[in-house]
């Protein structure tokens, strides 16, 4: 089976074509500046150089067409016709209270996905455009939705409810949903394989990238997670502030004369590592500035370490124990200093890591055990692979005809 994994953003569309016989990526790339001028598509067939082409893409349908054109191109392509693509799997950021597993698209799915526009417009509208584009260009290919929120749907009410009037939940579906679920699910699965069991395990997964979230996973099910109603909640991120005193929001709005949209933009784009360091949202730039003695760069990372430790402590407490701590995503996989600083502050749990091994461990598609043999908690670097999970779920949903069972709210 060949599966095309699609991740549609507001003006971009990332894609990967998988051959599920060996679960290898055949080709991948990205379309950028969809809907504007100066659009371009990047295409890379595995084992070959990247090809970039300028092409106008007024909507996601033209972007999908450009992707297909590249995949089936007699010279640079990798398949002979569009019919070789057996299914399309979409990454969906916000599934709201509706979707708890990956499912084939039908009219009810689209109807309920449209209800998520209200709670997550930034992500849901592009997803719908991506689906429309696929339907137009590949009308015969089954499409499957894989939700970032689904893995977190096991959270108990005390984790997902906010202490605001209950009517806000009933009227507007305001609750913690959690995100990066596909990544947390992937690394949990790998960690459970290492532990040799799922039942009885207590794992904390740290997905640290541009966007970051931490999850407490007990018996393979999420008990709590740091992102909330939106991906803005939780720890400090590249450009997002994470959880801050709510009173700061109206305070800044008044002082700076911000509209709600401007304040949302401010919290999503101007804060986090970028806001504190005043240098960059990229941890590599921050690390460079730290090595040159920049104090704000140091502070931005100190805040991050401090917050991550607080989450780990809190999550170990609500799980009443901890078997394994997992680091993943861009920063989690590639920033040894951050991992070391986090773990050195967790001796209360008996966590010990091998500093030399940690220092040289970075993403190379390898799982690395970072904890020492006498550490009371296993610490692992597990490179994430969200696209693979989407491809696997898509294959599974198509083969087993997994359909949406509607729950009414
Ligand atoms: P996204 O949330 O956009 O998927 P990533 O998981 O790619 O983000 O994480 C981006 C972060 O990871 C950046 O801060 C970047 O500095 C860091 N990062 C990514 N790759 C590397 C690398 N090879 N070495 C050091 N840091 C890296």
Structural commentary:
- The protein is α/β, with parallel strands linked by helices and 409 residues long.
- It is built from 15 helices and 14 strands.
- The strands form 2 sheets. The chain has an 8-stranded mixed sheet, with helices on both faces.
- The chain is globular and about 60 Å long.
- The model has no long low-confidence stretch (mean pLDDT 96).
Topology of this protein?
Elements lengths: L1 E7 L4 E7 L4 E9 L7 E6 L5 E4 L5 H13 L14 E6 L10 E2 L2 H9 L5 H17 L5 E5 L9 H4 L5 H7 L8 H15 L6 E7 L3 E7 L2 E5 L22 H9 L3 H10 L2 H6 L5 H9 L3 H25 L4 E5 H6 L1 H9 L10 H6 L7 E2 L8 E4 L4 H14 L10
Helix pairs in contact: 1-3, 10-11, 11-13
The structure holds adenosine-5'-diphosphate.
Helix content bin: 25-40%
Secondary-structure element series:
EEEEEHEEHHEHHHEEEHHHHHEHHHEEH
Could you give the distance between the termini?
A: 36 Å
Number of DSSP strand runs:
14
The average pLDDT score comes to 96
- Computed over alpha carbons, the radius of gyration is 21 Å
Provide the list of bound ligands, each named once: adenosine-5'-diphosphate
Structural class determined from secondary elements: alpha/beta
User: Uncertain segments of ≥5 residues (pLDDT<50)?
Assistant: none
Number of helices: 15
Q: How would the global form be characterised?
A: globular
**Strand arrangement across the biggest beta sheet:** 5-4-3-2-1-6-8-7
- Characterize the biggest β-sheet: 8 strands, mixed
Classify the beta-strand content into a percent band.
15-25%
């Amino acid at each position: 089976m060949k599966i095309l994994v699609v991740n549609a953003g507001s003006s971009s569309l990332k894609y990967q074509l998988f051959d599920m016989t060996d679960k290898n990526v055949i080709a991948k790339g990205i379309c950028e500046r969809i809907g504007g001028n100066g659009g371009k598509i990047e295409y890379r067939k595995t084992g070959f150089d990247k090809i970039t082409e300028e092409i106008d893409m007024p909507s996601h349908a033209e972007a999908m067409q450009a992707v297909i054109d590249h995949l089936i191109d007699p010279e640079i392509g990798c398949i002979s016709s569009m019919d070789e693509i057996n299914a399309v799997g979409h990454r969906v950021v916000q599934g709201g209270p509706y979707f708890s597993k990956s499912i084939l698209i039908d009219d009810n799915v689209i109807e309920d996905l449209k209800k998520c526009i209200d709670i997550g417009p930034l992500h849901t509208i592009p997803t719908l455009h991506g689906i429309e584009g696929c339907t137009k260009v590949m009308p015969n290919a089954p499409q499957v939705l894989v939700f970032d929120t689904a893995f977190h749907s096991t959270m108990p009410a005390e984790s997902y409810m906010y202490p605001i009037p209950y009517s806000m939940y009933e009227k507007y579906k305001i609750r913690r949903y959690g995100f990066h679920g596909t990544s947390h699910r992937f690394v949990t699965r790998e960690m459970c394989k290492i532990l040799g069991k799922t039942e009885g395990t207590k794992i904390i997964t740290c997905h640290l990238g541009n966007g970051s979230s931490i999850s407490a996973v007990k018996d393979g099910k999420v008990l709590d997670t740091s992102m909330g109603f939106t991906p803005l909640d939780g720890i400090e991120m590249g450009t997002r502030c994470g959880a801050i005193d709510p009173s700061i929001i109206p305070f800044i709005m008044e002082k700076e004369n911000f509209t709600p949209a401007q304040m949302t933009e401010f919290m999503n784009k101007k804060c986090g590592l970028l806001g504190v360091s005043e240098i960059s949202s990229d941890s590599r730039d921050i690390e460079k500035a730290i090595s040159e003695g920049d104090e704000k760069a140091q502070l931005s990372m100190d805040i991050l370490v401090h917050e991550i430790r607080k989450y780990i402590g809190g999550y170990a407490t609500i799980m009443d124990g901890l078997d394994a701590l997992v680091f993943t995503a861009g920063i989690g996989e590639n920033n040894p200093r951050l991992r070391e600083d986090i773990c050195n502050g967790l001796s209360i749990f008996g966590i010990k890591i091998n500093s030399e091994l940690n220092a040289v461990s970075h993403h190379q598609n390898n799982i690395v055990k970072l904890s020492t043999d006498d550490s009371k908690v296993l610490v692992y670097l597990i490179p994430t692979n969200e696209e693979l999970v989407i491809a696997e779920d898509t294959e599974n949903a198509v083969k087993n005809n997994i359909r949406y069972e509607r729950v009414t709210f």
